[in-house]
Amino acid sequence: MSTTEAPASTGTNGNGASGYRWVGTRPVRHDGLDKVAGKARYAADLNLPGMLYGHILRSPHPHARIVSIDTSAAEAMPGVKAVVTGADFPEAPPKGATRNLMCTVIARDTVLYSGHAVAAVAASTRREAKAAAEAIEVTYELLPHVLNIADAMADDAPVLHDNLFTRGVEPRPTEPSNIAARTVYERGDVEQGFAEADIVIEREFSTQAVHQGYIEPHACVVDCDQEGKAVIWASSQGHFMVRSSTATVLGWDTSRIKVIPAEIGGGFGGKTTIYIEPVAALLSTKAGRPVKIVMSREDVFRATGPAPGAIIKMKVGARNDGTITTAKAWLAYENGAFQGIAAMLGCMCVVSAYTLDHLYVEGFDVVLNRPVNVAYRAPSAPAAAFAMDSVVDEIAARVGMDPIDLRIHNCPSQGDPTPYGPKWPMIGLRECLEAIRDSDHYQSELPEGQGRGVASGFWFNIGEAPSATVNLNENGTATVITGSPDIGGSRASMALMAAEELGLDVHLIQPVVGDTEVVGFTDVTEGSRATFATGMAVVEACRDLKEQLRKRAAKTWDCDVEEVEWVDGSAVHGPGEQEPLTLAAITGNAKRTGGPLGATASLNARGAGPAFSVQVADVSVDQETGRVTVERYTTAQDAGTAIHPSYVEGQMQGGVVQGIGWALNEEYIYSDDGNLENPGFLDYRIPVASDLPMIETCIVEVPNPSHPYGVRGVGEVGIVPPLPVMANAVADATGVRISDLPLSPPRVLEALTAAES
Amino acid sequence: MRYAAPTTIDEARALLAADGDAIVFAGATDVVPQMRGGRPEPSMVIDLKKIDRLMSVGLEGDTWSVGAAVPTSVLTADAAFTADFPGLSEAAGLIGSDQIQNRCSLGGNLCNASPAADSVPALVVNDAVAVIAGGGGERRVSVAEVVTGPGQTSLAHDEIVVCFEMARPAARTSDAYLRLIPRTEMDIAVVGAGVRITLDGDGTVSAASVALGAVAPTVVRVPAAEAALVGSSLDDAALAAAAAAASDACNPIDDKRGTIDYRRQVAGVLTRRAAGIAADRIRTRNGQTSNEERAS
Fold first, then answer.
1. Between B182, B188, B261, which is nearest A744 by CB?
2. What is the ipTM of this complex?
3. Nearest Cβ partner for B180 among A625, A669, A750
4. Parent domain of B202
């Protein structure tokens, strides 16, 4: 099969039965041994001679004006080499994304959440740095705070930003408010749709803010030299982003900064921004020594990455034959201290798994006194799916239709309009629905006393800019250098695609994540883009190399290059007059045929294929304690083509597990005075391994025609369905539908008790 | 900060007596996270795991002696101990994780003085006695008297819990411990319930002990629940009365781990279930069919 065309749909469940030699196989990841042996180097593992430790002082108040900061006592303390406050950083513009980034890294005149960075110290030891930071005297003038959407949207709410006027409202408001933006998508006439519907169901839902829960706290080491150049070792999802963001916050030229990516201990979207690098850079500049900052777990919870909580009101109309015709949705999403686009994304996702004639979706992005949102796996989609797929479950019950059949009946296909405008390209939602319908799990009888729930989920996926360099070594091996931090096994996928292109054993290929000075610009590993987009750059570089290899063979054979074909890792002479030349034979002789062989590709990856997942769970509910146990769980997801099926399955399972945590127990618990009461893994309850059954996976392969191997991103969509899956399963098990997450034991018991009386 | 690893109780006590900011530890599974959080900030940490008597488990006559620093994984792996105190063994096996249980101890679980300590209700229902080494030699007090409030004990600064003594259970006696956590491990009890009962030949309860964790500042013994069980055949009415008494005995707080109403309700549920499990253990041991087997 020619690899220049996308393969036909195979539905092979990722077993590589698609005619490929390497794509679809499951070699052990190149970074695996170091990780299991504890040798992988994370950012906090680096120690440099003369290195200092940075400690960041954080606000104990959720909303306050900084009246004054006195650092004199701290500066006089033992071991202290540098102290910085917001005043040491460039002035932030009055509004916009740059201000939000700059003021998240360090507060200027106002703190907007408990945990907001206010000042920092670098000292010889951690203990000295902490003691000195605590000796900084900050005088605050307390301001009233708002912690939830309803309070923040109230007419008399304390306003966080006096220059924030709601976007998307005509005429433009004359008073500032906490509503940063209003987003509307509409089609048809919803009032007509509801009038014509046989069934109309209207419900209100709420979800809580959750953390990405990566095991590795944010960490960096920054070393600034006398010429003002900085080297940053950091854990992030994108070191080019670390470079540009740090430059922005410091007002530096990007060329002053080199960022070396450390191995990353989990990101899930939470490391698509920066918090500490500019602080360490300024401390290092002041002290003339390298500075390490490692966040504590408590700081991670108080000051980084929540995914937002949301309130969603859904009204859906359907006909008795199960056709969903009409949906009206009102969504409000927490943004944290600065405006974001959470509600806009929620609006785009909320009904995307359905075809509808009439649609009115209105969303509100709301700022409040919590840390600013950062991406978390398919941001905003889980809460939206929770609302829609809970209502769809009720519709299925009302019309007496199997919930999967109902979803197939309403499933969009290629060419149908998306709710947010463009037409759907080739998508695999129907295939995922059919895969679950036909699964052993769904076909099995539900055990006595248990409940079963299903739901589907959508995520966009993105492309953006990747770069890759592939060098052939003199011994016939290859080094694949990309700019994509590997957060889910992408290095193995890069090696597999290179192996397939070059016809080289995957074990002879070393995939590497290069720093900002050895590889071309590459966007953040986000939007499920690395294997899709950076994979395209790897393939393009390898194809360039194959041309070079053919030319070298032609030169060796003194023939026309058109007579040389590249077959299974060797140059083959078409007319058959020469013995084939292996890749190793060509690279070993490279000095005599024109020098070393290498190729680079940088591009804009277009055509990221949308992702869908459909999932089913069986649960049991302890009627006397409200505890929910997940008994069985199966997920089907369209991967386009599974380059490395094991790591595709890992992404599918990981998304499901995080979604189950969101559904069952995870939530931020704030005290009335605006402080987080559960900033640790003891009381912020992500699932532990023993909480879960093996998550059964079914890889669906509906190839993405825009990618040379048909890849779709697989990293995110798996987290979307579990929220409604769990709610639907609990409703099936108990007869009680709960529309407020999490489904923690006290909440479930309360609902069961209320339903009884 | 200094680290010391004395090999005798006298040596450990002398170190403690000489330094008001010194603390002792066994597994350190509570104290290390606490120190990381900034409190306590001891001048010296004294490791008790090098002292033989704190690290030994044994049966002398009809009395079990369990060293205060013995890892709970040793107890859960001890078949004879677990046969005598299945509920205490299962409580010890619920603390933290497997790795934690290779370090943590009954003495540490008690002296950390968390209201939610899993092993304490199970020790209390088994009438465990803490042997405490102090200035005047050794004293013996009921385990229930050691903890006086969250993070507070009745121990003097230079006193050390050496071991626990427990009489072997009487004939036809067994115990059980249940806790509610939202997850399956690596969590802290929202409610814990320990129950020990004795059945006479015809299946009537002749003695009962009930103790609850995480529902009050200290572990709560529930005489009213015990009275509801004694004299009954563990019929539904008696179990319901015991559950109601357990709920009534709670004096919980609303916090991040659970609400007052939830804790009250679940305390009753767990008390009833633990009583049933303890009774089943007695019946099974005596060759009778357990309720579970009868149901299946």
1. B182
2. 0.94
3. A625
4. 190-287
